[in-house]
Amino acid sequence: MHDDATHPRRPVADHAAEIAERVTPALVAALERDTERVTVARLLAAAAAGAALAPRVLTADAVAAAALPGFDNSQMDGYAVRSTDLAGATREAPVALRVAAPVPAGTQPPPLAAGTAAPVMTGAPVPAGADAVVRVEDADPPHFGTPGAATPGAATSGVAEEPAAEVRFAAPVTVGAYVRTTGSDVAAGEVLLPAGAPLGAPQLGALVAAGIRTVDVARPPHVLLVSTGSELAPAGRALGPARVHDANGAALTAALAQVGARVTTAVVPDEPDDLRRVLERAPGDVALVVTTGGVSAGAFEVVRQTLDGLWFGHVAVQPGGPQGLGTVVLGGPGAQREVPVVAFPGNPVSALVSFELFLRPLVAAVTGATPARRPTGRAPLAAPLNSPPALHQVRRASLDDAGRVHMTGGPGSHLLTHLAAATILVHVPPGVARLERGDVVDYWELR
C-alpha cells in the first residue's frame, strides 16, 4: 500500500507501535530458533575484546558443575574455633585457647584440636572440627601477630613480633557463625542460571566459579542492512564523480551491533533488479531487513518501486519523515520466507534518528542490551529554538557544565558531523513553534 501526500502524517507513537507489532515477534522467534553451544572461555574472550556489547541469552539451563562455595570457608579474618570450647566464656571469665597454625587462603589446614583456635583468613578453608569463626577484632588480642614483622619500638633492635601463644574470648559463639558452608550458594548439579537469563558480568562470573565450561545460547538476531542509492560507495572504496561513501551502512551496523544484532550489509544502486538479487541471496537466518533510502516520492526510489505491499508514507517527525514498513520475501524458489522490513530515509541523520526512535528499543529489549531505552532528562535551553508545530522535532545537542542545552548544528538531516558531536537528542513535541532561552526541554542521552 502506498500512502501519498494527501494523507495526514502518521504520529510518531503510532508508527513506533506498528513497527513493534511486526518486528518484535520476528526477533523473539529468531532467538528461540537459532541457538549454538559456546564455551564460556569464548564468551569471556569476546567480552575482553569489547565484542559482547549486548549479553548473550541462555537457551537451556546452566547446571553447576561444582558447589558454590566448594568448601566451608571463613567469611571474615578471625579464629576458627569449636563452639563447645567457648560455651562458658564471659567478659568476667574469658576462655583462653592455644593458638594453632594460621590458615591462609589457598591452603588445606589440618583438623582443629579441641582447646585450640586457628587464625583463619577470609576465604580460607575452615579446619575440620571447627564449627564457627570469631572475628579477630572480637578476640583478645584483637589482631594477629605477624612472624618476621618488627614490633613498634623494636625497629632498632630487630626483634620480630611473634604470634600470641594463646587467645582469649569473652563470649560464646553460635554454631556456623561467619562460616560460608559448602553449597550454600548453589549445590553441584543444581540450576545455576535458568534458560532465558542474559549473560552479563555477574552471570559470567558465576559460570566460571561453578566450573561450567559450555553453555547453550541464542545466536544474536541477524539483520540484513541494505543501503540504496546509485551515488553510494562502500566504506573504504575510492570515490568516483558524484559518489559518496555509505555512511548509513557504517553507522547503522555499529548501532545494531551495540544492541546485540548480527549484521549483513549490502549497497545497491537505484535498480530494482539489484535489490531483488540481494533479497534472493539473503542468508537463511535473517530475521529482519532494514533499508535506507529509496522511500520518498522521487523518480528513483528503488525501495518504493521494488517492494510492493509495503506501507509508504510520512511520519510526523523531523528529521526522518518518509518511512516504509511491511514484510518482504527473502530467498529464491523453494526457500522463500517472509520477514519484516523497516525502510528508513536515506539522509544520514534521518536514518540514525529513525533507528533511535523506532528500532533500537525493540532490538535491545529482545537481546537484553542495556539500557533498552535511552536514559532521559530535562534541562533548560541556552538559546531560543524554532520548531515546525505540526511535527515532533528531534534536535542534536549537548549539555554545558551548567546543565544548559546547546544545539549542535541546525535541523538539517545531512549534518552527520553535528550528530557525531552531540551527546543528547532533544525532543520538541508537536504543537510547539518556538521555545525561548531558559525553557525546559526533554532529551535522551546518547552516550
The helix/strand class is: alpha+beta
CATH topology of the largest domain: Molybdenum Cofactor Biosythetic Enzyme, Chain A
The number of E-state strands comes to 30
Q: Mind telling me the C-alpha Rg? A: 32 Å
Number of domains: 3
The rounded distance between the terminal residues' Cα atoms is 38 Å
**Percent of residues in beta strands?**
25-35%
Architecture (CATH level 2) name of the largest domain: 3-Layer(aba) Sandwich
Q: Biggest sheet, strands in spatial order?
A: 8-5-7-6-10-9
Shape: elongated
Characterise this structure.
With 447 residues, this protein is α+β, with helices and mostly antiparallel strands. It folds into 3 domains: 12-34 and 219-367, MoaB/Mog-like domain (Molybdenum Cofactor Biosythetic Enzyme, Chain A, 3-Layer(aba) Sandwich), CATH 3.40.980.10; 71-181, Molybdopterin biosynthesis moeA protein, domain 3 (Beta Complex), CATH 2.170.190.11; 376-445, Beta-clip (Beta Barrel), CATH 2.40.340. It has 8 helices and 30 strands. The protein has a 6-stranded mixed sheet, with no helix packed on it. The chain has a 6-stranded mixed sheet with strand order 18-15-19-23-22-20, with helices on both faces. Strands 21, 24, 26, 27, 28 and 30 form a 6-stranded mixed sheet that branches. Strand 26 (392-399) and strand 27 (405-407) form a beta hairpin. The longest helix is centred in the N-terminal third of the chain and has 22 residues, at 12-33. The radius of gyration is 32 Å and the shape is elongated. The two termini are 38 Å apart. The model is unreliable at 148-160 (pLDDT under 50).
